[in-house]
Structure formats: C-alpha cells, structure tokens
User: Fold (Fe-S)-binding protein from Candidimonas nitroreducens.
Amino acid sequence: MTQMALVIDLNVCVGCHACVTSCKEWNTSGEAGSLADMQAYDADPCGTFFNRVQTYEAGEFPFSETVHFPKSCLHCEDPPCVPVCPTGASYKRESDGLVLVDYDRCIGCNYCTWACPYGARELDPKRKEMTKCTLCSDRIDNQALPERDRKPACVLACPTSARLFGDIHDPDSEVSRAIRERGGYQLMPEWGTRPANHYLPRQKTQASGCSTQSCGCGSDGASASGSAVPATGLQGQLDSGRIDLAAAAARA
Assistant:
C-alpha cells in the first residue's frame, strides 16, 4: 500500500515560516475552503492553520541552540482520529494513505481532536468544521500540473529543501532513503499510531568554544592546548535524556 508522507530535515529548517504561509495561501483558495482569520491584527487573534513551526531554545549559554520544529498532521498509518468520528467524516484514503476530512459530513464535534495525541487538528471557528493538513491532495492529484509541481505547497516553498515528499513504503523513494540513511524518526511512536511523517535529526557538531577575551561570555571555551569543549548543545541533551523535544512539540 502506498503511504505518502513528509520527511522534515531539522538540521536545515531555519524557521522562516515559508511553509506556513504557502500552506495557508494554497488551502484558503483550494478545495479545503476558506480558512478563517478573525481579528488577525488585534490583541486576541483567531485563525486556522494546517501547518505551524514551533521554535525552542535549548541548552545553556554559551552553547544554547535555536531549534525550529515544523508540525502538521502526521497522516498516521493507524490514525486514532478516524474510528472515533461518529459520522465517518474523518477517513484514511486507500490510494495513498492520506488522512482526510469530508467537510460535508463533519459536524464539528471535536472527537477527532481529542483522539489525536499530536494536536494536529483545528476547528475552523467560522465554518465550524474540522480542518487539517491534506498534504495538498488537490495538488498531488491534479494531472493538469507538471509532475514537478504535484507536491504539497509547503514542500515547493521551502527555501532550504528541508521538506521532502514521497512514498515511505517505496524503498527506493527519496523519503525512504533519507529515513534509512539519516536515522529518520517518528514523533512519539509510543502512542502506536505509526505516524507516516518522519523527522531527520539535527547532526551532531563539535562546539567550537569561545574565549572571555573575544566575546566576553565568561566561558573558557578551549583548553590551553586549543582543543574544543565537548558538545553540550541540544543533541547532547537529547542523547542524555535530559529533554524530550519531540514530546514537548507534540503536546504544545
């Protein structure tokens, strides 16, 4: 069975939000319908987004790191949102494994939102219908578009190519190779939902260190022999189990 999905490279995501804005623009004018933006510039804005980028500061100065974590529907292979839907509005498409919503059948009961452990669904406050990432199904199915354009809007807009799209069940696809060769992982696999979307981890780097004389941060940085201080940034914290960024992002 085909399972289309995103693979997101956390090592090169710069948090520019191009994926967020392109997603919003395409889906507001596409088959997903108009996505609400109410009081967008007031003190209490309200809007509907399929894709968000959460930013974290991790580590301790001077070895702290900024991490950008894009998150949308993960198109689980065993989606808990589907069986709880009382009208059958939420369903998993057999042809490509996408988890979609039939807006004509949705009654806005929020059962699917409560069932999703990733917080990936948003009830549109104006339409009173449940919305979520469709991986731009109306783009990837559109035979009138050139093949290179039959990809999600977020993938086409990413300036650093941090987002890959393809069939994770095809061992020769770009996404499968990336997962296999770079240690791609699922978000919170302990829930047993088998998320189709994967993340590529940040690469381990050696902290270069700095000197009090050069930057005034108060860190010794390098030893007298010039050797660098061992990496103590985000990846080191993840390896040591001191923080669980993926779980934090999923619950945010």
The CA atoms of residues 48 and 78 lie 25 Å apart. The mean pLDDT is 83. Residues 4-75+138-251 form a domain with the Alpha-Beta Plaits fold (CATH 3.30.70.20).
